[in-house]
């Protein structure tokens, strides 16, 4: 795991959590675009990923962001036909992207089922798209911020416990063909690629996520609890509701700099 600062921020419930993350995102994207000419953001599927984007869509401050300088990628995708409501891309478009008027070439969705002869060709095509947007000599862009959800089993993106993909240190994009969570076929960035992101924000809510979060912070093996292996270059933040925080080991609260929303004003 990358040794960067990890923080846990706890909020009262899902709505407060989504509001807080959306507000922080709008602030952070503004700061990134002040410092750089363009930003690369990695989006996630899942319940909280969509809730955060929908909250961003409703925020007035979204109109202050120059979205034309932002490129959107995804950490993983359910390998389904284009427009399928279960695709992470479809959820993100519906929640936010369709209302931003971002140029189509800045929305870098994973290929959909039917666009390539095989799922492996689809994985290779996304790897090629990442490489085309990468700085010279690199295989993928410098991601400024990566959003991730966490499954109850500790999976992140489509990296599942005990599957080959979570151990992969060589590829940029992998095809997962035996996902325990439907659909069985998925495409995913690998752990080193996710961890190359400057910042990683994991957003999780609900008591079904408590065990995975507790184990991740107790330094479980990433092979068994994939989220335990996550660590951005500069900062990794777990944004959680009270239910998801229920099993964060007491002794880690200080070391992980556990703050309640009421006390925390840092970015
Ligand atoms: O299938 C997926 O699930 C996870 C978590 O989703 P949630 O609804 O339980 O929060 C998500 O992070 C991942 O991107 C997605 O493909």
Automatic annotation (TrEMBL):
GO molecular-function term, one example from the UniProt record: 6-phosphogluconolactonase activity
Residues annotated as domain Glucosamine/galactosamine-6-phosphate isomerase: 13-234
Chemical reaction(s) catalysed: 6-phospho-D-glucono-1,5-lactone + H2O = 6-phospho-D-gluconate + H(+)
Keywords: Hydrolase
Pfam families to which the protein is assigned, alphabetical: Glucosamine_iso
GO biological process: carbohydrate metabolic process; pentose-phosphate shunt
UniProt keyword Cell wall biogenesis/degradation present: no
Protein origin, superkingdom: Bacteria
Enzyme class name: hydrolase
EC number per UniProt: 3.1.1.31
Pathway: Carbohydrate degradation; pentose phosphate pathway; D-ribulose 5-phosphate from D-glucose 6-phosphate (oxidative stage): step 2/3
Similarity comment: family membership: Belongs to the glucosamine/galactosamine-6-phosphate isomerase family. 6-phosphogluconolactonase subfamily.
Function as written in the Swiss-Prot or TrEMBL entry: Hydrolysis of 6-phosphogluconolactone to 6-phosphogluconate.
Protein name, as recorded: 6-phosphogluconolactonase
Native species: Protaetiibacter larvae
Gene: pgl
């Amino acid at each position: 795991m990358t040794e960067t600062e990890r923080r846990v921020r706890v909020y009262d419930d899902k709505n407060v959590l989504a509001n807080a993350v959306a507000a922080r995102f709008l602030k952070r994207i503004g700061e990134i675009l002040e410092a750089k000419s363009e930003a690369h953001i990695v989006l996630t599927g899942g319940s909280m990923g969509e809730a955060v984007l929908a909250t961003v869509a409703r925020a007035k401050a979204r109109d202050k962001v120059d979205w034309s300088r932002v490129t959107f990628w995804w950490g993983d995708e359910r390998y389904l036909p284009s427009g399928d409501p279960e695709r992470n891309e479809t959820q993100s478009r519906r929640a936010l992207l369709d209302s931003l008027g971002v140029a189509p070439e800045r929305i870098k969705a994973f290929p959909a089922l039917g666009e390539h002869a095989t799922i492996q060709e689809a994985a290779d095509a996304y790897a090629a798209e990442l490489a085309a947007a990468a700085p010279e000599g690199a295989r993928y862009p410098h991601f400024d911020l990566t959003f991730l959800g966490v499954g109850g089993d500790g999976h992140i993106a489509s990296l599942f416990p005990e599957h080959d993909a979570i151990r992969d240190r060589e590829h940029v994009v992998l095809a997962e063909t035996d996902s325990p969570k439907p659909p069985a076929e998925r495409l995913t960035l690998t752990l080193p690629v996710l961890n190359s992101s400057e910042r990683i924000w994991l957003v999780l809510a609900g008591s079904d996520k408590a065990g995975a979060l507790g184990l991740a912070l107790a330094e479980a093996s990433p092979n068994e609890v994939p989220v335990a292996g996550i660590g951005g270059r500069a900062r990794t933040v777990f944004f959680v509701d009270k239910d998801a925080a229920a099993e964060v080991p007491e002794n880690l609260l200080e070391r992980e700099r556990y703050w309640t929303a009421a006390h925390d004003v840092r970015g």
